[in-house]
Amino acid sequence: MPRCIDCRREVLWTVTDAGKRLAVDPEPDESGNTAVYRDGTGTRRSRRPSEELPIMAWEKLYVPHVANCPARKPAATQKRPAVLPPGVLDLAAYRRKAGGRP
Q: Between 1 and 34, whose confidence is greater?
């Protein structure tokens, strides 16, 4: 089974409706938000279920691997160093406030 290049956990690779590749965790999960099925050629296809097109009987729900990958921390959880290195400016003080555009 293929593995994530960041954390080395096993993943299933799928192809989305847009033709992009999406890694999902290998075990189905009812709390997932990605419906996965195999097409006639055996390729795993994935899509996002909606009210207009809910999950079908031949699909199972999976969780995208990026949501659980321990090697990929969300930017909000990454800490900024207390003291910035020499030559690095903190631009937060100079950024415009939301809605402050003329």
A: 34
Domain ranges of the chain: 1-74
Bridge-based pairing state of the strands 44-47 and 12-16: parallel
Name 34's bridge partners.
Answer: 62
- DSSP 8-state code for residue 66: G
* Amino acid 78: pLDDT: 62
Cα torsion for 16, 28, 51, 45, to the nearest 10°?
20
Is the pLDDT at 73 greater than 80? The verdict is no
Distance CA 30, CA 23 (A): 17
Mean per-residue pLDDT over the chain, rounded: 86
Helix/strand/coil for 76: helix
CA distance linking residue 63 with residue 77, whole number of Å: 21
